[in-house]
Amino acid sequence: MHHRAFEYDSCAHRSYLTRCILYWAIFYFLHLAKKKIYPTLWWLYKDGLLPEETYFVGFARSDLTVDAIRAACLPYLKVTDAEAERLSAFFNRNTYISGKYADEASFSKLDKHIQSLPGGPEANRLFYLALPPTVYHDVTKNIRHHCMSPKGWNRVIVEKPFGRDLQSSEELSAHLSALFTEEQIYRIDHYLGKEMVQNLMVLRFGNRIFGPIWNRDSVACVTLTFKEPFGTQGRGGYFDDFGIIRDVMQNHLLQMLCLVAMEKPASTSSDDVRDEKVKVLKCIAPVNMSDVVLGQYAGDPDGEGDAKLGYLDDPTVPKGSTQATYATAVLYVSNERWDGVPFILRCGKALNERKAEVRLQFTDVPGDIFGNLCRRNELVVRVQPNEAVYAKMMSKKPGVYFSPEETELDLTYKSRYKDVKLPDAYERLILDVFCGSQMHFVRSDELREAWRIFTPLLHHIDIEKPQPVLYKYGSRGPTEADELAKKVGFRYEGTYRWVNPHRL
């Protein structure tokens, strides 16, 4: 029987939460709501992790009903027969209001509706903005002027993208800060809710063995990877507007870089952790185009199904688009710990596998006595799929010969924690919002520094429209990217591959 890997009393205000009444107003696209938001709320409600007196109010332009929302969400809720009654109780606490995002009267109607629910004016209110940035201004302004709780707390969750570049991000931040305090704003990057991303801090600062080697003296390079085995699949219109760097690299990969590179915070409080992340970002210069490889996937004539189709074959992609579906960029953290160590960020679509990981490759062992038979040690944190931490090391090959071979010290979660079901990233993060913890959310100055690093590169790409290198659907990506990684110090021998013991 699985149990959920939650700390049930980890929230300092848990006893308060069970007594309070809370309203959750969701502004959304149904696509995201049905696949992520409603399933997450259901799982939290089902496990008793939300206050029992929580009510959920949907708000959008579409003319919907709760029954329609339930039907759309049901395939994603993972409901067992024994949970049917609990599911009914959950949807009985759901209501829906249709309105226009720029219409003050619509928000007055929303507020009146919330006031009419049990607990009314005393309730806390949490607003989730799963919306395109183009309507953030109208929605947040109307929330502030018409929907704030007069007695409870008010918090706003904002989904990425947080702008398109430094200027648009600063404008959005200025707008939000004029309406809400920083403590009320939760900029959600779901990667910060991943089990292994959160584990990076414990691995680094809870183990003595890593401290002395976690620096430029022992680490040759750090590679952060995000790979997807599918293409845009009809979402080319959205993707072509933003591209792989805005979609993945500037947020997900850069957040992981911060957790790998930052100094030990004074405590695990939200501000102490985020202070150290900002210090890392301030040490990174804007990315140079000479340290970047851009790629775009082409169809594989020998492939099957979607693999035969290239990016430009997607009917939702503009003809002749030069948008990159793959990118490798090399960044440097110019401080005492990391000076000269390349951080290689790689991300792309239509690649050979689904994988997200952090890989530290260590320097060669000095004074080699084994005739160049030893490979570099690596520490790998696999974020998805099959969460794992493993160290690639050399060991004597069993038998009569004195021959070293590569093997691993392995912590694979499905083998070590067989009776634990890991919560979804959104579950962790939404629970954090209820508890008022902002550790795993992006602060305004953190966001500013992240955009500072990538904006010159993005503007260059938008204006010059460099032709990306073509790579075949289902491949490892452009060979030019491997050559760039090799040039800056990454060594790929290709002689060893980690085997998931859960599959043996």
UniProtKB/TrEMBL annotation:
Known catalytic reactions: D-glucose 6-phosphate + NADP(+) = 6-phospho-D-glucono-1,5-lactone + NADPH + H(+)
Gene Ontology CC terms: cytosol
Subcellular locations according to the entry: Cytoplasm, Cytosol
InterPro entries (alphabetical): G6P_DH, G6P_DH_AS, G6P_DH_C, G6P_DH_NAD-bd, NAD(P)-bd_dom_sf
Predominant place of localization: cytoplasm
Domain of life: Eukaryota
Annotated metabolic or biological route of this protein: Carbohydrate degradation; pentose phosphate pathway; D-ribulose 5-phosphate from D-glucose 6-phosphate (oxidative stage): step 1/3
Gene3D superfamilies on file: Dihydrodipicolinate Reductase, domain 2, NAD(P)-binding Rossmann-like Domain
EC numbers, comma separated: 1.1.1.49
Domain Glucose-6-phosphate dehydrogenase C-terminal as annotated: residue spans: 201-492
Any Gene Ontology biological process: pentose-phosphate shunt, oxidative branch
A Pfam family per the record: G6PD_N
Alphabetized UniProt keyword annotations: Carbohydrate metabolism, Cytoplasm, Glucose metabolism, Membrane, NADP, Oxidoreductase, Transmembrane, Transmembrane helix
Name of the top EC class for this enzyme: oxidoreductase
Keyword Cytoplasm: yes
Annotated protein name in UniProt: Glucose-6-phosphate 1-dehydrogenase
Name of encoding gene: g6pd
